[in-house]
Fold this sequence. Notes:
By secondary structure, this protein is of the alpha/beta class. 47% of the residues lie in helices and 16% in strands. It folds into three domains: 1-57 and 427-449, Glutamate Dehydrogenase, Chain A, domain 3; 60-192, Rossmann fold, CATH 3.40.50.10860; 211-364, NAD(P)-binding Rossmann-like Domain (Rossmann fold, 3-Layer(aba) Sandwich), CATH 3.40.50. The protein has a seven-stranded mixed beta sheet with strand order 9-8-7-6-10-11-12, sandwiched between helices. Strands 1-2-4-3-5 form a five-stranded mixed beta sheet.
Amino acid sequence: MTQIDEKLEPILTEVLRRNAGEVEFHQAVCEVLGSLGRVVAKHPDYLDDALIERICEPERQIIFRVPWVDDKGHVQINRGFRVQFNSALGPYKGGIRFHPSVNLGIIKFLGFEQTFKNALTGMPIGGGKGGSDFNPRGRSDGEIMRFCQSFMTELHRHIGEYTDVPAGDIGVGGREIGYMFGQYKRLTNRYEAGVLTGKGLVYGGSRARKEATGYGAVYFVERMLATKGTDFAGKRVVVSGSGNVAIYTMEKILSFGGIVVACSDSSGYVVDESGIDLDLVKEIKEVRRERISEYARLKGTGAHYIEGGSIWDVACDVAMPSATQNELTGKDARTLVKNGVIAVGEGANMPSTPDAVHIFQEAGVLFAPGKAANAGGVATSALEMQQNASRDSWTFEQTEERLAMIMRSIHDICAETAEEYGATGDYVLGANIAGFVRVAEAMRALGLI
Length: 449
Ligand code: NDP
Ligand code: 2IT
């Protein structure tokens, strides 16, 4: 369990009490407060005016009904959420998740993390998150469109280019953003490109946004490996998931000379010792929208599929969890350490449980927390907003270069902050403190908000 400074303990106790049952939110708050002991020891004034309590309380939480009609003509009801967590640094910014597990606690954990992540990017964006318990699996294109239109019919009242700018997350990619943008445009009679990011290139999207989270995570890990005088070349890498983040994580690892030996979806994982064939994964996931088990069937010899089980049983030098929260447990961490892992980069949000993080850090494994390592997606969303605001469109190279620069700078601010607070090499502490200080300073400057 994370150690909490005694001055912060009453704050945590109160957060746990008034957000009963929201276990993921508790976990995220606990982890950040666990890093702030050294900050309040040095700067006790951060304890004044309930600043930390205010940071743990979302500015606004919206919950709404989403009615829609399925292909059989039956009426379906889902629940929609948008948690506008913190707007001290800019308009609320963060993705929308469609997954049956979505509930208020999950959206709050994601919005809380997003606030610090966005601060780390150095871009003018606040933190928010949204979603629905809608399950897109097995739904037709028409059902997806009707759901997205109904979801936006309520959401449009709460968002705007200067207010709140959603994007994708689990279950929400280019197709869904397109349907939501189309509905927003009809409802408002405005071509307000900057209201959503992750848009298609034909209607105001940014080059490299689709690739940005995965590419950015690999840039971060590459820089972290460089502190130990090594790199991706020749390394065995395991990447969990096979969605947006996982696919472009694999793509950049391959371009850096790494060998990806396994990837997964929520049903199981595939191992391919000759190196995962990324074109095949893209065909299965981006075009056919099928299960990862198809990979082993289509690839034939060399590849095998394991139903269920843990992808972290596959030995590797670098692990990049890129599916979902708490997908890598303490047991998995012990297995990875035993098998000689040297670095872990979180592409997903909070994929490692607290005991897994502890095990990696105790074992001296380089560990990049999600709020730093996966910030390239939202940073490039901010670049998309910048292009929309100036009615401009940058080249892929120009955009990727900005992304690479931002990731280097996030890496360095985490490393420097950890050092400043006497915890050299602790990227969790560095990310939490650097993100917190930026948000806290802005909130102080704005008076009692
Ligand atoms: P996608 O929907 O594109 O892919 C998600 C992948 O994770 C799929 O392979 C999915 O498998 C798997 N997955 C989802 N839920 C579970 C679960 N409960 N158990 C096991 N596997 C699961 O989402 P993204 O790639 O966009 O997101 C992945 C992670 O990265 C999330 O944590 C997200 O919050 C985070 N992230 C995303 C960013 C982005 O720009 N998209 C930016 C920063 C972070 P299946 O298809 O079987 O469900
Ligand atoms: O978790 C995340 O950072 C995202 N899902 C991307 C958010 C965004 O606004 O681009």
